[in-house]
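>> received
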Amino acid sequence: MPRALILTETSIAPEPLRLGLLAAGYSVIDEITEPQRLLKRASAIEPDIIVIGTATPSQELFEALRALYENAPCPVAVYSSDASEASIEAASACGVQLWETEDYSGERLPAQLTAARARFKLVRGLRDALSEAEGKLEERKLVDRAKGILMQSRRMSENEAYSALRKLAMEKKLRMGAIAEQIINTAHLLA
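>> returned
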């Protein structure tokens, strides 16, 4: 059973939201009313989704969502009567997967929450892939710099420098990027 954390802000009553979640097959593991507690509670209880009810989102809510997105990302669904483009864009920039201006009770809730969780999983996979690609690019840059150092200092061809890096990495059981970084640091030390 998926676990939900509820945050209600302003004049939103938590009871209908809790009942809707229970009817949708969710376990409500906590309910809070202060946005500044969101990151701490979400980090402590690790919900499967955070469901927020707010008439008009406060600046504190957006700040809390931004902190959550940067430090402990998880799926977030917001139900609000605020249909302004500015609020929806701000929420999207803070990692919110669902912004719904309709009532959160009824038959649509399970599908909406499933879609929010699926969208979170997809975006997280894309972010992880991007991070991995950026890491590989950085490692490739280090390898190229180390090859240049070897080519200049040892009068090697590019292929010979690459082979030397690869051989050393295999002997030391380290990634080529780590070996390249050591060569670069040593060159700086000796320069």
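>> The two ends are 61 Å apart (CA to CA).
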